[in-house]
Amino acid sequence: MSLLVAGLVACDDRPWNDPYPRDTATSNTLYSSFGERPKHLDPARSYTVNENTFIAQIYEPPLQYHFLHRPYQLIPLALAEMPRVRFYDAAGEPLPDDAPAAAIARSEYELHVRPGTRYQPHPALARDAEGAPRYLDLEPGALAGIDTLGDFAEHGTRELVAADFAYQIKRLAAPWLHSPINGVMSEHILGFAALGERLEAADPEQARARVALLRDTEFEGVEVLDRYRLRITLEGKYPQFSYWLAMPFFAPMPWEAEAFYAQPGMRERNLMLDWYPVGTGPYMLTENNPNLRMVLERNPNFHGERYPDSGMPGDRAAGILDDAGAPLPFIDRVVYSLEKESIPRWNKFLQGYYDFSGISSDAFDQAVRVDASGRPMLTETLEARGVELMTAVEPTIFFMGFNMLDPVIGGDGQRARLLRRAISIAVDMEEFISIFLNGRGVVAQSPLPPGIFGHRAGEAGINPFVYRWEAGRAVRRSLDEARTLMVQAGYPGGRDRDTGRALTLNYEAVATGPDDRARLNWLRKQFAKLGIELVIRSTDYNRFQDKIRNGTGQIFFWGWNADYPDPENFLFLLYGPNGRVEHQGENSVNYTNPEFDRLFERMRNLEDGPERQALIDRMVEIARTDAPWIWGFHPRAFSLYHRWYHNAYPNQMANNTLKYRRIDPALRAELRRAWNQPVLWPLGAAVAVLLALLLPAWWLVRRRERSRAL
Description:
Elements: E1 4-5, E2 8-9, E3 29-34, H1 49-58, E4 63-65, E5 74-76, E6 84-88, E7 94-95, E8 106-112, H2 162-173, H3 182-188, H4 192-201, H5 207-216, E9 222-224, E10 229-235, H6 241-244, H7 255-261, E11 283-289, E12 293-298, E13 333-338, H8 342-350, E14 356-358, H9 364-367, E15 368-370, E16 376-378, H10 380-384, E17 388-393, E18 396-402, H11 414-426, H12 429-436, E19 441-443, E20 467-470, E21 473-476, H13 479-488, E22 504-509, H14 514-528, E23 533-538, H15 541-550, E24 555-561, H16 568-571, H17 580-583, H18 594-603, H19 610-626, E25 629-641, E26 645-646, E27 662-663, H20 665-675, H21 681-709
Parallel strand pairs: 3-13, 22-23, 22-24
Antiparallel strand pairs: 1-2, 4-5, 6-7, 6-8, 8-10, 9-10, 11-12, 12-13, 14-25, 15-16, 17-25, 18-24, 18-25, 19-25, 20-21, 26-27
Helix pairs in contact: 11-13, 18-19
């Protein structure tokens, strides 16, 4: 393999599809692991963490998140420039950019594809001397002896064009692909729902006919203007659509790839788009054995993106901008090995055979210690090895929800509201984070995680119903205050003042193992502080989902991870028309407040700025007052990397950050040798013991032989 020298990489003559490339400790190869077997690698369907790890390196959507800028900033990726957005009223007349959302009947996004971008080498794109596709109309028996893509004699490429984006958007509507964002896009892209109905009505049985149907079908929401320009039309105003353009769902798809894999005999040989994706990204999947390892290798046709030349204050001093302007990617090859258990993965990282690692609960004490101020630090052992710790608060919230349709704990009455606030004080989330998360979390004060517009830090951001601000930090209110709220709610000492009965509440749990039992016991104790008996109703996940869907659950834990870094993507979890029972939406607690809903409708279509911040502040104040959630926590991601691993910078929204990483393979090889020297003294000791046992026997045998001779 070639090595990185002064930012330039000299390619060797190894064929791109070699399934077993040379693998030495000094190669420019990154080593990592994965614990969950990816099921498919089709961007129309993929949404699990492991699948996105691979998909984001292979496929390129129109936009991406800037690697270094915070708050998160969208920049072009497959496009030559940011999309041009125009607004129109119901009569088709153009509107100014600051037109009120109510006046906007449709929004038009014009995408300008970067010319010269080419797909990775692939047999689907190979052509013969006359320019006709070589492998798209194979005769029966032509696949004899073909087991992998590498068995095809020729591989071709072609330029990325606007029609490839249009084809992929139509794939999102295809009923046979079951895309998870089909419902969302049906609400926004003009004619998208009708397209899905047309495709379903005409759904042919043969895969090749489906490709032709998608290619030939047109709809009003997507129009190819010319080779490099595409227009997407939305109903009304939906500014969050730009974030969707940064997701793999909108990565371009060449129709030839689907036509290639749709041919008879391909699926039987495991030759599928799920197995061998086709993209324009910095890497391509050259070995796919999810039960053993998966290998990404540099795409020789990559369009030549460069490392960012600007970042946040302090980035230059920290060395994060040392590679500014250098061509990407830095790493030639990435090997992911399947590790089903955490201990082998951890030991291999310590030995230097994995370049970076997460931290499992079992290994946490070996890796991290907490100083007197609560700040996480590496253990002395890892510090001595030059290992670095990287932490980042994830754009995620876990919360305990109160079903607002429940007659005891729910509703907008003052009695239930005071009861919810008392429980919010009693359930000590700081203790939960310390015990069950090894401190890897930040207590939530509102639905908005740090880094999302609208989040308030410091004293201005605390939930005043649960915390006070003392000595420069948030301090949880006392149990005495919680018990006072219980009295005001009519439950002194946890008993109903009217009936004299002890207050009993139900917690809906999906519990299967000993760790769950410990958490549930802890939770019972939190409610017992107020004299409340908490009944744990354990069930399987499907039954749990039914309870939430039907509104028969009472209290439960729930979580949400950001699809995109916008406050709308969190606050909509409390928007009345998104109620789970009535509207089958993501408002799992069925909370509704008319003022909150009105403010949400104004806020969601505004650009970030003082007006939007003021609306968010008021919405958060309303939600804190009503307390439909115990706000829970935002998880903090901890990861470790060796000293030869560079440009380790947390970006919790982007999945395509592998291209920015750089390694020093020579230093890695040197340290691996130093850390893994063979220990020979046990062998020497064993030999000595063996000799000590054998010598007396040998002496006795010799003595007996001499006596016989005499």
